[in-house]
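User: Structure tokens for both sequences below?

Assistant:
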Amino acid sequence: MTRYYFVRHGTTDYNRDGIYFGVTDCPLNEDGILQSKKLSALLSGIHFDEIFTSPMKRCTDTARLITVLKKPEVSEALLEMDFGLWEGMHYKECMEKYPEEFRKWSSDYRSYAPPEGEKYSDFYERVSGFYHEQLKKEEGNVLIVSHKGVLQLLTSLLLTGDDSLFWNFNFLPGKYSILEKESGHCTIKRLNL
């Protein structure tokens, strides 16, 4: 059996304010640091066989505060989607400055990318590549510290083998969730603890 611990990085000023910041490397704020320290206490009794993190500072700092005894493996595949010209903007500002692009992307995110941003198909290929390389094993405890979109997609892939459940989960900043996989079947044990 494999037990996956999915952690969304702690709070930053950007996600607190509702700003797109997929590949913008912003740090944890004071709340995010406290959340990560709380996660460290909650997860201190668990031996992690593997630890993976996105290279973004908000994720590496969260991982470092959780696991002081084992260095995480940094993976570019765990980066959030690149929102291009929308990085650093609130969605309302995106709607004002890029009304047509935002409308198209909101109604069909699979076919349209944010201006100068990442296509969903590229994001999917990157994250599903990580899934096929790293999450097919069925043994031990695996910690993944990443971003909301990545965790949504990994959860859908673990449960269904595709992205059909991508929009069915919400991973909160500074919280962890547990999924268990045994004999090829995955179940959600806990969300946002």
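Moving on to the next sequence.
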Amino acid sequence: MTAANKKPAENPGRFNPAGCRRPRAAVGVGDGHLSTRRVVVAALLVVGAAGLVVLRAGVLGVSAVTRFDVRVRAAANSHRELPLLGRVVARALAELGQRGLTVTVVVVLAVLAVRRSGSWRPGLVSAGALGLLGVLGQVLKFEVGRLAPRAARVAVHAGGLSWPSGHAANTVVSGALVLWLLPQVRPALAVWARLVGGALYSLAIAGGGVALVVLDYHWASDVVGGWLLGGVVLAVVALLATARDGPRRRSGSGAGRVVI
């Protein structure tokens, strides 16, 4: 073949002689699922943030929210004389949201996950979630200034730090981080984290919230506000953590190629 008849080599960065670009690499199979998850998380973020705004407005005014809080506290007062075992269980559930305890557990698991994976991602995600929760929680607490139920009156802008409940929010965020980090530290615990861990996580959230109200630590709307705040934080962190995960492309167009 003469040099004039030779076909020019294709350059992936330029148009080929036929006027068409080279076909792009195929997108990974899991990209559609990732996009769907992002849409779902974004929707949950919008719903949670809207709920938090509406609840805050109800807490700041004399509304159905404050009347509901008073009725729930009155009902809880009639059952406050718990037996010894009941008091122990209630206090244990309420203390699950203590930041000193949960942060310690999350930090230990995050360090182990970083060492095992060789990536800073577990540590950065955990630190971002806990940091964002701390900042947003304190801003809302100081802005609303709600007194705790033990003050025997419903009052806002009074220097209190009752709404939203930091214990409830911390249980939501820290519990989710623990369930996310455990399989990274011990892959064999992945199934356990989804099934048993998920059930315990739900029990800790619900039981801890009830205990905070029964023990007169918080109003009912404080607990709901904490749950919503925790959900908003998790949604924000999840979206940010997956924002840089662009479409995974296959290393070739044939079936059976490894996704990179």
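User: Anything stand out in the second?

Assistant: The two ends are 39 Å apart (CA to CA).
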